[in-house]
Every structure is written in C-alpha cells, then in structure tokens.
Amino acid sequence: MKPSERRNLIIDHVSRHGEARVEDLANRFGVSLETIRRDLAHLAEIGEVLKLHGVVRRAPLVTEPAFRDRVAARSTEKARAAAHLAALVRPGETVFVDTGSTTLACARALAGVARLTCITNSLAIAEVLGGAGVQVFLLGGSYGAANGQTVGPMVLEQVARFRADRAILTVAGLEARAGATDADFDEAQVARAMIAQAGMTVVVADSDKFGRRAAFAVCPLSAVDLVVSETGPQTGPDWLARQSAAAGTSFGPARRPAQAMP
10, 72, 107, 187: least surrounded by Cβ within 10 Å? Predict the structure, then answer.
C-alpha cells in the first residue's frame, strides 16, 4: 500500500471513530510504529488530524471571534498581505470584495488604485473606498450588525447582476482537502456567488489560516487562482507548495481570462 493510500485510510478511520490510538493504527495497517508516526506527523502538518500523547484525533473545525477582535488580530500581517494585493490590481479594474477583517485591510490598500470599481456587501469596506473616491456598489439585503454586512437571497441575486475582473475574498481556513472554507454560512454563500461572476478568484489570507478548515465550503483549491499572504502572492510558506501538490493543483497565475464589467 502506498503511503498516500494509507494516510487517506487513516483519515477515514479517525473521522468515523473520532480518535484512534497510535499502536492500534500501526497494527491495523500492518506497519511499524515509526511508519505510522511519520504518517501522523504528515497529516497533522497539513491539518488533517490532531496529535496527542499516544492518540490521534480529527482536527477540529475553526471558529472565529467577534469582528472587532479579528480586526485587531495579526493586523501587521494583514496589512502586508493587503499591500501585496494592491500592487497586483490594475487601474480601471472591477472587483468584488467580501466581508472580513483581512479584506477591510485590503480596502485601505486598494483606495489608491485609480479608477477602481468595487462591489461589496461590507459597510466598512464601502465607507473606506467610497471615502477615497472609488466607485462603490453596496449590495443590499439582510443586515448583519455583528460583521457590518448584508447577506441573504437579495445579496446573492444582486451579485448575479455584475461581472468583475477579480473576486477578492478572505477565508477562515485554507487547506488541501477542504479548500477555502468559512466559519459563517451566509458569508460562504456570498463568496461563492462572487466567484461565479469573476474572472479571477483571489484569496487573501495571512499564513495563520493555512492548514485550517472551517464548517462551510467556499471553493476547492482548484478554483483559487491566486493566494496572497503577508509573504506575497504565490510565494507563501512551504505549506502552500505541499498543499497545492497534495490537491493536484497550483497557485500560479490565473487560469481563466478576466471579464470586464459590461
């Protein structure tokens, strides 16, 4: 049995049972403790399992704190990622930007892009960009005061009326098997709708999000054209290369042509 096949079976076993003893896994697959520990070390590194003393458990799904707390957390990394993003966006582009503390940092950096048009469901992002003279379309719908955003069917219907060069999104987790995930159901729906109407999908996430998974799927890695972290675009930590290889995809340049807004 190939190591990749055995590791997939380990994931399935731990998922079904919640946890497993390391010795039991070695006996189950007929390999040495050293081999099974290498397997578990690899799976823990990519966020598939949680290693404890003599026991392995399914890695928990991440949740997110209050929005104001997220804005304050890792603000330096978010600002660096935002600066890298702004250097990529060309004057005259039309972009979707979803709600998030990272995309709020992106909005501050994007305010200097000439002739930018932004479509967003975030009041804070609309205020930042609108105050800088950017043309902003604020999507209307059910108002979520906790995150200062609009969500729900009305937002999704309005997203479908636009086309954009890029969907600029933030996520709660980015991981090989789960892809891009969010901790909020409504926010994940909005992100998926934006992806469907954009020529390029850009996920902006500090490296703290790498290897994590949240409850609600946004898109698989194969649908992400570019990842931008505090270290820059396409040049994240070694995890990025390992994750993309494991998923059989690449974080290279866009694979789909950009579509200008009509």
Answer: 72
